[in-house]
Inverse folding.
């Protein structure tokens, strides 16, 4: 074989080892992120169904055609004068309730966060819930940070890098081979290893582009705090309103909410308002955030800031008019969650997202089959893979039960303990295996010299 051929063969072996070991050691993480991500794309739809059927949070028709909530907001402000933040979420569809996200931070007490639901037709409060213990919060927190507050988000970012590595190395290993095959080509065999290997290659190549997009955007979103600090990147749209009065006087200002909506339509007609947030820091402003139809950017990033008193525009942020750096920054989350093309696109995202979980499972089964053949291991690969899958589902369901029925803090504590113990065990196992392998190689070298 020529030197060029040897080099190509050695390169292929290197990529195969990299694909193999990265897949084996991060497969569970990729599988968890695949499963939770496939559900997380439907968070708004799932939450809307829960509000409608579990909390009976349904609105009657507004006589003016615009959502009515002024009296309810006034009553909430009087009931919770020590609130630190209040965000009004406007309904996306007729019949949905107005939702108010209220954060209360009493002096010397624990932070509390509630969602209140307002009938947008008759303007009265029809229900409430603990925001942190909601299913919507669980789905997002589990996918974004695995419910581990210290470095769970960074682990998710590492999972994104791992998915990108296995996707690219899979292309380098199997790309030419798959090019010569009829698509789809599945060998007829009762052998589990061959069956799983064929599906692994077929789905890996078919969903390659999608998995790369999810992997790279997920790596950025997960590692964002570190990357922004290391690369000295600042968040686009760093608007800071000037303080013009005392915070207590700011809270006491009466806001004409219908006037705010009318001013928004006049100043920023393309904007579909979704969140309205009055200031509490003394700036005397109201921030309106929302989406522009047809644009592929992070939800609710377009912003209009209005004066509380005369509704004049203080600041406007239209992402379409911003430089490339801003657009690139805000396109990441939209591409990652498919939140820009309607329900059918989300369904496609969910289906394709599950392929990375299947690739982890099928790759693990192929690994176990090879290991069984090499070491005459009697354990059935299918049963081992099934046991791992059940354990993952038990973890996800268990943390969900704790979060929904006991509390977010308790669920985060349990998840943190489990994840950190598993991480320590994983690092210890990998280190022990490396040291043992190094010792064996040295011992063989010594015996060979004798």
């Amino acid at each position: 074989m020529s030197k060029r051929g040897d080099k190509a063969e050695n390169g292929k072996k290197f990529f195969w080892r990299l694909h193999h070991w990265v897949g084996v050691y991060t497969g569970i993480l990729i599988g968890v992120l695949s499963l939770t991500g496939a559900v997380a794309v439907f968070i708004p739809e799932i939450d809307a169904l829960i509000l409608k059927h579990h909390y009976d949070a349904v609105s009657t028709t507004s006589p003016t055609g615009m959502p009515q909530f002024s009296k309810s907001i006034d009553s909430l402000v009087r009931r919770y004068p020590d609130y630190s933040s209040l965000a009004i979420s406007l309904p996306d569809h007729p019949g949905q309730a107005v939702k108010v996200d209220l954060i209360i931070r009493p002096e010397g007490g624990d932070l509390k966060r509630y969602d209140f639901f307002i009938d947008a037709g008759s303007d009265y409060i029809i229900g409430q819930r603990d925001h942190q213990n909601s299913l919507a919060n669980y789905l997002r927190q589990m996918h974004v940070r695995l419910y581990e507050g210290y470095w769970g988000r960074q682990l998710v970012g590492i999972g994104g890098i791992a998915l990108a590595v296995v996707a690219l190395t899979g292309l380098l290993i199997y790309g030419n081979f798959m090019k010569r095959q009829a698509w789809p080509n599945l060998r007829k065999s009762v052998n589990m290893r061959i069956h799983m290997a064929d599906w692994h290659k077929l789905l890996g190549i078919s969903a390659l582009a999608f998995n790369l997009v999810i992997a790279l955007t997920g790596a950025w979103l997960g590692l964002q705090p570190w990357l922004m600090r290391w690369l000295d990147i600042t968040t686009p749209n760093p608007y800071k309103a000037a303080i013009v009065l005392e915070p207590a006087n700011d809270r006491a200002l009466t806001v004409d909410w219908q006037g705010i909506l009318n001013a928004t339509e006049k100043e920023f007609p393309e904007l579909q308002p979704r969140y309205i947030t009055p200031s509490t820091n003394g700036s005397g402003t109201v921030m309106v955030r929302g989406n522009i139809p047809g644009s592929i950017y992070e939800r609710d990033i377009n912003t209009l800031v209005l004066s509380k008193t005369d509704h004049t525009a203080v600041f406007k942020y239209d992402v379409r008019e911003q430089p490339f750096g801003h657009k690139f920054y805000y396109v990441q989350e939209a591409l990652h969650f498919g939140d820009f093309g309607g329900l059918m696109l989300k369904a496609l995202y969910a289906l394709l997202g599950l392929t990375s979980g299947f690739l982890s499972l099928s790759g693990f089964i192929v690994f176990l089959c090879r290991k069984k053949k090499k070491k005459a291991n009697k354990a059935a690969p299918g049963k081992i893979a099934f046991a791992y899958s059940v354990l993952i589902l038990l973890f996800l369901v268990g943390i969900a039960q704790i979060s929904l029925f006991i509390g977010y803090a308790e669920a985060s504590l349990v998840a943190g303990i489990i994840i950190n113990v598993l991480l320590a065990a994983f690092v210890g196992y990998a280190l022990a295996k490396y040291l043992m392998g190094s010792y064996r190689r040295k011992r063989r070298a010594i015996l060979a010299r004798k």
